Amino acid sequence: MPRPRLLPVLCAAALLGGLVTGSAAAGDDPSIQSLTTDLDQILADPRLAGAGAGVVVRSVPMLDPASRSSVDSGQVLYRRGGADRLQPASNAKLLTSAAALEVLGPDHRFTTSVLADSSLRGSVLHGDLYLRGGGDPTTLAADYEALAQRVADTGIRVVTGKVVADDAAFDPVRLGVSWAWDDEPYYYSAQVGALTVAPDTDYDAGTVIVRVRPGAAGQKPAIELTPPTSVITIDNRATTGAPGSASSIVVERQHGNNTVVITGSAPANGNPSAHFSTVDDPARYAADVFRSALTRRGVQVLDPKLGTGVTPAHFTELAAHRSMPLSQLLVPFMKLSNNGHAEILVKAMGKAVHGRGTWADGIRAMTPKLAALGLPANAYRLVDGSGLSRMDMVSADQLTALLAAARTRPWYPVWHHSLPVAGHPDRMVGGTLRTRLRGTPAEGRVRAKTGSLTAVSALSGYVTGADGKDLAFAVVTNNVLSGTKDLEDRIALRLAVHPAGPAARAIPLEAPAGDPWLECSWRKAC
User: Fold this and answer.
1) Residues 167 and 294 in one domain
2) Which of 90, 157, 251, 440 gives 451 a disulfide partner, CB atoms 3.0 to 4.6 angstroms apart?
């Protein structure tokens, strides 16, 4: 799988300011002096030479449990390059998720509707059937089956027109600013739309699962799609190799169309392999899955073409599906670092506040909410919600300010629950941290958002120290030439034993599994 490319331009302040000496803010407190010494030592790693690093640790506000108002404001315990604006990678999702809870609320649900603007005569609907999306990234093929059944329950057996996909709730711009064109085939860069399909309960909207089933040696493997869809054209160039041979299967959608090319070899008698592919125009994909469901439910659509358009002003609602609430969606979104969820939330915020489902309007809706959470307007830059864009810039100071302020919000328990938990084996608990910090004092005591792009790595969240008190921390590195996730883990581990002292230096750390650059979410391995 190709990695996101590194653009040649990076803020000079990040290059220069990221390596200044760490500082403590508590005078002669020996525990903080020890913490400063240890973190300085960790950050003296030669891999950070010439790189940008922003690291901030702060105590979090003590709260009145009844009002959730601050009893004290906390204090900065360590700060190094804290003001430097750096690419946050998926740490940008901290901003997006917090803003979405402020703007949309934890009870927000998306609605997908089936509508008609023509008359029903007996069992015949004269005209088109409209499938209107409201931005739901969690709609499964089973949900379209249920919608089709509700249509059948109305008595309709024939639709004289076609199924029309209406995703006008969002604008037609499906890929974010500065996203790499050669990432388009891969599930982490799926197209964003108001009407889509998720092929699994990770809710990877706008993708299809391509299963490659080996045949007899020398024969082509069989290809299956989940969910089945006719909008995908399979170009199967793969072969089945000898039993026990290595698998070299590659599944890649061609740029700009829905032809998926399968190459390489799968061993005879081997298990089927599953590969995720993005789909060009997810609205047509959704309409195709729904039309097939109608056929299975005994509703014949006479026009075989799939239409796209806007539902007329006067219509009759035949069926509707409401998504899970945002409070539940946050779990797969944040635990598995789902880029598509972040982008849909940005556009949904734009639609809710400004009446336009665009990235620009979504960011505009987020700005005042983030200002109230410690991120003043014009002090950072976001152009998307996931952090996939190389144009995003946020500082470690701003991330820890957000982490501290979030604790005062009524939605904080839901948000805190959505963060990955270090070392927890359940993927919907541990998420992108489930294989990290296992068997250490930090296991189960670090809740944090991971982030990575080529030459970018980040980890920001909360640590419960040895004294039972929580700390907020942010570690963001840019322009590194080799992976630095072990440094993030070492910092988190040191915080987990604070204020006990430097004993964490002697605790062995298991190396992060897989590619040292990229977290497991890039490889669909979480």
Assistant:
1) yes
2) 90
- The span from the CA of 284 to the CA of 208, in Å, is 13
The residue from 97, 113, 327, 337 that is catalytic is 337
Our answer to whether residue 389 is catalytic in this structure is no
- Domain containing 79 equals 12-89+396-523
Asked, for residue 164, whether it belongs to a domain, the answer is yes
Chunked mean pLDDT (size 10), the chain, 526 residues: 32 31 60 93 94 96 64 81 97 98 98 92 94 98 98 96 97 95 94 98 97 96 97 98 95 95 96 96 98 98 95 94 98 98 98 98 98 96 97 98 95 98 97 94 97 95 95 97 90 93 66 68 84
**pLDDT score at 58:** 96
The amino acid occupying position 116 is: A
99 in a domain, yes or no? no
Helices (H), 264-305: 282-296
Question: Are 406 and 488 part of one and the same domain?
Answer: yes
Say yes or no: 454 and 515 in one domain: yes
- Per the listing, tokens 């169309």 go with 257
Catalytic residue, candidates 90, 323, 389, 395? 90
Q: Which of 303, 136, 296, 137 is nearest to 228 (CA)?
A: 296
Query: Does 90 qualify as catalytic in the annotation?
Result: yes
Active-site hit among 59, 93, 265, 347: 93
